[in-house]
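Record pair follows.
FIRST:
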Amino acid sequence: MTKPLVLDLSEVSADDVAIVGGKCASLGELFRELTAQGVKAVDGFSTTSDAYHLLLETGGLKKNLQKLLKGLDVENLDELARVGSEARALMLETPFPKEIETAIVKAYRSLCVRTGKKTCEVAVRSSATAEDLPDASFAGQQDTILNVLGDARLIEACHQCYASLWTDRAISYRTARGFDHFDVALSIGVQPMVRSDIACSGVMFTLDTESGFREAVVINGAWGLGEAVVQGMATPDEWVVFKPTLKLGFRPIVTRKLGVKEVKMVFADDGTGTQVRDVVESQRKRFCLAGFEVLQLAQWACQIEDHYSKRAGKSQPMDIEWAKDGVTGELFILQARPETVHTQKEQNFVETYKLSDNHGAPLVTGVAVGEKIAHGKVHVLLNPDKLKDFKAGDILVTSMTDPAWEPIMKRASAIVTERGGRTCHSAIISRELGLPCIVGTGNATEILKSGTDATVSCAEGERGNIYYGSVNFTIDKRIITDEERPVTQVMMNVGDPDRAFAASMYPNDGVGLARLEFIINNHIGVHPMALVNYPNLKKREDIEEIGRRIGEEDPKEFFVRSLAEGIAKIAAAFYPKDVIVRMSDFKSNEYARLIGGLEFEPIEENPMLGFRGASRYYDDRYRAGFRLECLALQRVREDMGLINVKAMIPFCRTVEEAEKVIALMAEYGVR
């Protein structure tokens, strides 16, 4: 019986990795099994590994490649570049056997008919037969070609995909991992384009990508086609959704961060291929997804994770690509593959990096990837062709990376990019290599100078910092077991929401004190009463700064949302254990330091014993501000379902004060 050269995705499952590669096997699994559960996956077809092997036997192609690769030293970058270039040329110069071309064109025309068109735009995706296995990440090493239209262009794109199996980075990766080059075949997935070029798209993980916390869905998104997010061209919006209470029907978006979204990838003006355009200011200032869409994606992510976990017989976090169609407004899942970094880590091993205090202000800041620290000499590099100039142990500083940068990334002590988010190429490869990485810095190539010593720190929360010089740091490594626990309960003090997921990995009995002051000071920065009275404030500079911070958001909603998200992230990290949240306990002089604060705070001889705590809450000078605190707490408990949050009232002097505050909280919806 003749083996098929092409299979519809409806004929493919996750068991067919050897036939269609990891990516296409997963595409088939999504389409076959999860569409019935309400997850919108995309139709399509895949070439098989037999088609690739048939091509290799054409005109002595395989023998020529074997001869070319014999004795290759992948550490010699010049030799690697020469061999890779010649291998790709051999692939492109070898014409498709007639039976392969006929099978692809027939499947393409049938797919177009199913979409209601005579010809249709498609995405053409490479799928290596060892790709996306739990212990390897071939993802991104081979080509994906978007917006391909017509028979001839499709055949050309397929040829390009086959050739991409022989890029320098792919050859190097297979050699390093011990894969025989000819044990790895390439299949090609073809699917109708989702018109995200006129909407948005992105990536999501069913765990926190930095700490490995398993109960979160992290979603990144930006305008246009998803390649802009994956390649790190655009710094995306980010949302974090808490899985346990999402499954109970609540709306637990515990983090929402607006990305810069500098550029977007769209269809090219000539009707085929893609091009990159700047994003207009109005789109940069707003999120690319509405809240209900974020929750829908998170729900699908949970369903996909549950399905793959059931298949694997163990928890299986997933790496998922999504897109929104700008014509229909529908959301779609484009790809799903097992997460390959935290899944392989020893769960009870904790490694903690701590930076010494003898450093100045950071030169550059961005989004931290991982939790490590490294130092070395800065090497600003804007072109991967200059790889041979890069010395092992240097800090790579560039605008963004793609798979062509991987040979040099392996030599770096740390990586710093100007664009990208936590799910871009730079971030994913840095995690795989175990390197500290800071993305989305905006101006690193301008500020940092080649040859200077610098320290890259990802150990200070979600913001990564680059400092001048070689700053000392310590590393604490330990295996944590419950056998070391004392008989008494041990609850944590947690102030920084950005560190809550990582902190929850240590043995604990919940949070004994979560202070609101850190969230208000670092995530809001504005006096609550200044937001209540905005824009009717005395100082123009305060009005302007508050306007810059809140954007188009209602000022009171800005406070409630920001505070609720900070509380919720801590509560989610330790759920269902109790998290005791102390309502704000700034002293009057500390409140005065917040933006707009001087206008609303008295000057006191001894602020330690003055206008603070319970007596402040029911005072007319702060009552409206306390209402906002209560609304935030109510949102965390009732909208997000985090009922493990317990409120603490500080500095309560008398029983009468306690009764007044409890009554006021009830009036504001907190009981």
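SECOND:
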Amino acid sequence: MSNVKHVPSNADPKKHNDYSLQLNRWFLISIGAWPQTHTSSLIERLSSIILIPMWSSVIAIIAIPCILYVFLEAKGIQTKLSPLVPLFHRIMGFLNYSILLARGKDIHECIKHMEEDWRVVPKMEDYEVMMKHAKMGRYMTGVCAMFVQGSAFLFNLSATMKTVTLVINNVSTTIHPLSCPAYRKLIDARFSPANEIMITMQVMSSYIANSSTVCICSLAIVFAMHASGQLSMLYTWFNELIEDNAKRNYLVQQKLANIVKHHLRVLCFITRMENIMYKACFVELAGCTLAMCLIGYYFIMNWEVLSTAKITSYSMTYISMAFNIFIFCYTGEIVAEQCKSVGRMAYMTNWYELDHKTARSFILIIIQSNNATKITAGKIFPLSIATFGDVIKTSLAYMNVLQAISI
């Protein structure tokens, strides 16, 4: 078609791919989880070697004493439940961190896949579709990072700014209470400088847990938006196929072959995305459901004594966790719907204007679209908006159970 605009030959696919992944790259590099390749610089390799054991040790120093405190020192159901939200947060962060490191090769392959898609995009119309989805993914990644890091910052700030006075051996001591209390026989954080050191370690462990969650969420967003953009391009290709049937019949078979190959390529990308995400999605959904349940429990049981700062921090944390779950469910929903839409689009085109042999090929596309890989949580249940509603209802149900047990 003479009026088709092509992407300029000097367009840099790596630059466009870096634009869509820029925020993800910053987050992953900060925790040493950016995939290492033969092209990685010496500084990048050394930073990973240093950061990975350092961040893992920080989380262990906070989580292990807190677990011992809950099981061996805390008395009463409310005392045991009080530190569970920050403890779950660290454990979830560590699990997400481990998943990122274990799936580094798959993440690298997805990044290479995206760069190749940018390299082979032929027409300006397709390029604009890809750029639109890249900008949307970048925007959602920024919002996710602000929610997660902001809520955790407020939670830590409200916890560390508060001071309590303890009388130990007839001596009054003022300390900052820990959101993750430590088992005293292991670490006695009632005295200086142990108290200040543990406060610092808690802030650092919160950062790595937040960053791991942000990395997982942002990768899910960017990968899902990229897959959505690639599937959206097929809509235009289907229409062009019908138009070319009347004008240049000899191109129809070639264009149909390109559509099928591109469709299978996108489905392979989604399958690799699922292999990266399914464990992290399960960790996030299970952990956030329990944490949201506990936050609701804290609200109900301590409403009369909660300060404005505490109410704000709890509210932000609850919203942040609900937002994280929504992001995962939304990415699963949009990928599943776009896959089905390709099948619907193939059916709704004027396929009856094609010759019988070509038209029969549409059946394979429709079947493959309906059986496409879905993004799941632990390969147990698919992620969708309906799943998000179920998670919210489940967290409220668990909260009522906890309240009944405490009373």
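COMMENT: Residues 194-247 form the longest helix (54 residues).
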